[in-house]
């Protein structure tokens, strides 16, 4: 549980396939690890949007509608969350691009 996709496919550079050999062998092996398959860039240019469009074309995280409730002869307005007829936003372009979470680099400011 919690394993990312690149670790499952064997692209994580810090894993060692050798059973032993001490720290020197592990460091030498890690330096020679190359990703298998196609080369993946370290940047993320798009993400899945977290907002929704409603029937009117409005964009928001949540939608509410006002309902009138009569209780003991008094009218009272309540907000009820809308779950139906919402369209996901889809793919959103990131500006500027972000660094991928599985890219093994330590960033620091000098």
Describe this structure in words.
One of its GO terms (biological process) is positive regulation of interleukin-10 production. Residues 1-22 are annotated as: Disordered. This protein has 2 helices and 7 strands; from the N terminus they run H-H-E-E-E-E-E-E-E. The chain is elongated. The chain has a domain at 44-104. The mean pLDDT is 78. 13% of the residues lie in helices and 34% in strands. It has helices spanning 5-8, 22-31, and strands at residues 43-48, 52-53, 59-60, 64-71, 74-81, 87-88, 91-99. Strand 2 (52-53) and strand 3 form a beta hairpin. The chain has 110 residues and is mainly beta. The relative contact order is 0.21. Strands 3-2-6 form a 3-stranded antiparallel beta sheet, with no helix packed on it. Strands 1-7 form a two-stranded antiparallel ribbon. The protein has a two-stranded antiparallel sheet with strand order 4-5.
């Amino acid at each position: 549980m919690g394993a990312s996709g690149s670790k499952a496919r064997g692209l994580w550079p810090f894993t060692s396939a050798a059973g032993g050999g001490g720290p020197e062998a592990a460091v030498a092996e890690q330096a020679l690890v190359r990703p298998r398959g196609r080369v993946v860039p370290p940047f993320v240019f798009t993400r899945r949007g977290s907002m929704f469009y409603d029937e009117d074309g409005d964009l928001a995280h949540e939608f509410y509608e006002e309902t009138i409730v009569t209780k003991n002869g008094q009218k009272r307005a309540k907000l009820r969350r809308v779950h139906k007829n919402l369209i996901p936003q889809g793919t959103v372009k990131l500006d500027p691009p972000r660094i991928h979470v599985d890219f093994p680099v330590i960033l620091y400011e000098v």
